Each structure stands twice: as structure tokens, then as C-alpha cells.
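USER: My hope is that you can spare some time for a protein that puzzles me. I am handing you a single protein, as its sequence and its fold in C-alpha cell form. Walk me, if you will, through where the backbone shape changes along the chain. The protein I mean follows directly.
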Amino acid sequence: GESKMMLGRYSSKSADTTVGERIYVGVDSTKRTAVGDILGMARLDRLSNSASSDLPLITQMFIEENQAHFIKSFFNIAGPLSLKQHAFELLPGIGKKKALQMVESRGSSGFSSLSQLDEACSIDSAELLAKRFVAEIQDRNLQPRLSELLLPVSS
């Protein structure tokens, strides 16, 4: 479930799979080289310590690889959620002043890439969005859910 960022459990055919490596887990089992059977969905509380610690990094890699989607679908169109809160304030470490700076830096033309956004606003946007996604995975009651608004990623 890459486009939806779903956590799955799989039996391995080979032991030499590395963290962050793309593997095919689709319906056609003949195309699966690294995965044997699909065992179901993974539960966050049952992930190994290494899988739990790798989750933010893998999420950040996913965001960086699909940066055009996240720039277009979030960073270039995010607006006020209410009179007192901007959507940028949902990202960890972003307060009212930084959110206002981000809106001013965005201007009317918007950002063209995450690196332009990061440079203009002195942040690591992929890391902040990844932290928010991981927080939403860990806390199902966290609202509003950016992961539900921004996923699945359509190429």
C-alpha cells in the first residue's frame, strides 16, 4: 500500500531486504521476488523496535519521492482552519509566526519544490509532514487528519 502508506505484514522469501527498499506486494504472486505471502495489516503496537524507529525515516523518504503531490496538495493550497489556526500549524514545531512566514514566502505563485520551501522558511518540510503522519498513525483520534486528506498519492 505505498500510495496509501499502509503498514503490512509479509513473509519473506529472502533475508537480504534492506530498509527503504521497494518490494512488489501486488496480487500477481509470480512478480513477488522478496515477499512470499501477505499476512495482513500490521499493528503499530506490534512492530519491532527497529521497524518503529524506521517508520519516520521511511515516511519522510515517501514524502520526498512524491514531493510534487505534497507541494501541490498541501503546501501550495493550505489555508486557515479557523479564525485562530492555519493548516501549517498542524505540523509539529510550526506556530503562528512560522505559519505566517510560510504563507508570505509562498506568495501567489506557490512553492515549486520542497527544497525551495525549506530554504525560504528555514524548515525541513518533509520531516515535519512525516512527523505529523506518524503522529496520526500512533493516535487515531488526532484531528484533522492530514494523512486522510493527502493520501492516496496519485502519480
Q: What stands out?
A: Strands lie at 8-12, 35-41. The helical segments are 49-65, 67-75, 96-106, 114-121, 125-138, 146-150. The CA atoms of residues 14 and 77 lie 43 Å apart. The chain has six helices and two strands.
